[in-house]
Design goal:
- The structure is a homodimer.
- The first copy, chain A, is mostly helical.
- Helix content of chain A is 59%, strand content 4%.
- Chain A contains 4 helices and 2 strands, in the order ααββαα.
- Chain A has a two-stranded antiparallel sheet.
- In chain A, β1 and β2 form a beta hairpin.
- The longest helix of chain A is centred in the last third of the chain and has 32 residues.
- Chain A is extended, with a radius of gyration of 18 Å.
- At the A-B interface, α1 of A face α1 of B.
- The first copy, chain A, binds a DNA duplex through α2.
- Chains A, B: This is Transcriptional regulator.
- Chains A, B: One of its GO terms (molecular function) is DNA-binding transcription factor activity.
- Chains A, B: InterPro entries: DNA-bd_dom_put_sf, MerR-type_HTH_dom, MerR_fam.
- Chains A, B: It holds the Pfam family MerR_1.
Chain lengths: 108, 108
Amino acid sequence: MAADPSSFKEKKVITIGIVSELTGLSERQIRYYEERKLVFPERTPGGSRRYSFVDVEQLVEIANKIEDGVQTYEIRQEMIKEKKKHKDEAHKKMIQGQLNARFGVRKY
Amino acid sequence: MAADPSSFKEKKVITIGIVSELTGLSERQIRYYEERKLVFPERTPGGSRRYSFVDVEQLVEIANKIEDGVQTYEIRQEMIKEKKKHKDEAHKKMIQGQLNARFGVRKY
DNA sequence: CGTGTAAGGAATTCTGACACG
DNA sequence: CGTGTAAGGAATTCTGACACG
C-alpha cells in the first residue's frame, strides 16, 4: 500500500553527468538547485553526487517552474508545505491506527 | 501488458562503481562477465560503462551460478535458450494477432 | 577459468571564484 | 538570482598485461 522502500526509483545511483543527460540541465544548474536545498543527492565515499530517478523527475519540475519565473526560494516553500501536508496525513493515519488497535476494527 | 519500455529498471544509468557496491562484486568481475557476454552495459561518449537495475539483478544471479561451479560459457548457453524461448513466444503471439486480424476475434 | 593487481592514461566530478545582470 | 566558465585537484573508470592455477 505504501511506497516500496526498496523501490528502484528512489535509489541514489545516478551520477550528475547522467542526470544532466536525462534532464537536459547543465551540471551547474543541478548543483545550484542542491545549494538552494531543492534536491538532496547522496554522496559516494569519494564525494561524488548520486541521484535517484525521483530526483531526476523533481529536477525537471524545478526547471520548469524556474522557466515560469518562480524563484528557488518559492519553490522551496512549496516543497516544505507539501512535506507538511504529507506529515499531517501520516499523523492522521497513525492516530487512526492507534484507535483501531485500541478499540478493534473490522478490516473487511 | 508488455514491459514498459521506458521502465526505470531498464535504463542504463549506473556506473560500475555503484554496481560494485550494489552487488558486492568487484569491478574486475563485472567487466569479466561482460567480456564473456553475460551483461551488456551501454557506454557514455567518454567510454564509461552504464548499467541498469535489471543488469544489476542479473549480475547477482550470474555470480550465484558461478559460485555454484557453473562456468560462464554454460551460463551464456542458458541465456541464449531463454532468449529463444521468449522469441518463440513472441512469434506465437504475433501469429495469433495476425489470425485475429484476418478472421476477427471477440476480445471479451 | 575466474579473479587480483599494478600501470598509465583519459574521462568525470568537485569546489570556490569571477562574470553578467 | 540563476547560470556560464576557466582552474586545479581529486576520484572514477578504462584497457592490456602479468600472475595464479
